[in-house]
Design a protein that fits this description.
Its EC number is 2.3.1.225. It is a multi-pass membrane protein. InterPro entries: Palmitoyltrfase_DHHC, PFA4/ZDH16/20/ERF2-like. Its main location: membrane. GO terms for molecular function: protein-cysteine S-palmitoyltransferase activity. The chain is mostly helical. The chain has a domain of about 250 residues. Helices cover about 60% and strands about 5% of the residues. It contains 13 helices and 8 strands. The chain has a two-stranded antiparallel sheet. A two-stranded antiparallel sheet has the order 3-4. Strands 5-6 form a two-stranded antiparallel ribbon. A hairpin with a 4-residue loop joins β5 and β6. α3 packs antiparallel against α4 and α6 packs across α9.
Length: about 400
């Protein structure tokens, strides 16, 4: 009886050992069939996420033309509201010289925004040719020569010289030949949204925070109500979302016509203008914040002489070198000033005033295939063949 009791007590332990041996056997069988010494955790993770990457790539490829159209429509809407609502307000409130400055400055911004966006969207970012001599490796996707700083874009299905990322808002890759256009578009668009928000704030404030009855779309109600709750304002102002409610008008215009605010009702045109002013300010303010953060991120990368893809590669290399008590240095980081000059293509007699502050189609320095590093300098002296 004591012997039976002893075996019953040992059963959980024996079951644990049996299950452990069973899983160990399965692991040995799996490793004997599937083990690869060169496989890493990142490779396994990439393989597991491949279906998700496929969905994202094909969705981005499909959404690209739609997002480009959206950028064009929203930019056109903002420009029209500025012409119709904001600039007349500036003209009536300020003198002719100040209005002339706004007219010149706004058109300078618009010119740079349109030019850099068109060039960034339609300029070929650069692709390596099949007979390139400076080859670091072979692309695993397209099985083609892969020069330094070149990466494969799964959306465009090709390798891109000095690839930074694929931008769905451009429906194009950002690479060697259009990287400058992309950054200048981000900068000028950010500058334009900030300028439009500041120039149109008085008009927006009158339409959104005025002490008269306003026509406010229903989806603006929480924002307007939150403002009055936070500022603890007590007023008899009512917020409407219907299309027949009274709205605020230009008091100077009404005075000239001998009318009072309560004498007329808002027409459909007035209501559309009212809603467009509110929408424009909120749109420009939100885009200004988003583009500001994006611009700071890319300016930081440019200052360090790296792209968005190289930032992850350099980070991984720094960690690997730190484990060996070594210091990793980005081979393409020539210092803050030289990095910006190389990025903006300021060489060969080009100036910041002429080629950056105004539209310019100048090519970047180099060919995107051969690259100087902090330890290697290209010999650009003419050869015998060049002289011939």
């Amino acid at each position: 009886m004591a012997l039976v009791h002893w075996k019953i007590l040992e059963f959980p332990k024996r079951l644990h050992i049996m299950v452990k041996d069973y899983f160990k056997t399965l692991r040995i069988i799996y490793l004997s069939l599937c083990y690869n010494h060169f496989t890493t955790c990142s490779t396994v993770l990439d393989t597991a996420c491949e279906p998700m990457f496929w969905i994202v790539d094909h969705t981005t490829r499909f959404m690209g033309p739609i997002m480009v159209t959206l950028v064009v429509l929203l930019t056109t809407m903002v420009v029209m509201v500025f012409y119709i609502c904001i600039f007349p307000h500036i003209y009536y409130q300020k003198d002719i010289l100040w209005s002339g400055f706004h007219l010149f400055f706004s058109h300078w911004l618009l010119m740079n925004i349109v030019f850099n966006y068109v060039m960034a969207a339609f300029t070929n970012p650069g692709h390596p040719s099949q007979n390139v001599s400076q080859v670091v490796s072979i692309c695993r996707k397209c099985v083609a020569p892969k020069p330094p700083r070149t990466h494969h874009c799964t959306i465009c299905a090709s390798c891109v010289l000095k690839m930074d990322h694929h931008c769905p808002w451009l429906n194009n890759c950002v690479g060697f030949y259009n990287h400058r256009y992309f950054f200048q578009f981000v900068f000028y668009m950010w500058f334009g949204t900030v300028y439009t928000s500041l120039a149109g704030y008085d008009v927006f404030k009158q339409h959104f925070f005025g002490n008269k009855e306003l026509v406010v779309p229903a989806f603006f109600f929480p924002v307007n109500m939150a403002y009055h709750l936070l500022t603890d304002k007590r007023s008899d102002k009512k917020i409407y979302s219907n299309m027949s409610a009274p709205m605020m008008f230009d008091s100077h215009k009404l005075a000239n016509e001998g009318l009072e605010d309560d004498d007329i009702k808002a027409t459909l045109e007035d209501q559309l203008i009212h809603n467009a002013i509110i929408l424009q300010f909120l749109l420009c303010a939100g885009v200004a914040v988003a583009l500001g953060l994006l611009g700071i991120w890319h300016a930081r990368l440019i200052s360090r002489g790296e792209t968005s893809i190289e930032q992850h590669i350099n980070k991984r290399e720094r960690i690997r070198m730190r484990k060996k008590n070594l210091v990793y240095r980005n081979p393409y980081n020539f210092g803050f000033i030289k990095n910006w000059k190389m990025f903006l293509g300021l060489g060969k007699g080009r100036t910041f005033f002429r080629h950056i502050l105004f539209p310019s189609c100048h090519d970047p320095l180099g060919d995107g295939i051969m690259w100087e590093t902090v330890t290697f300098k290209l010999d650009r002296s003419p050869t015998v063949l060049d002289l011939l």
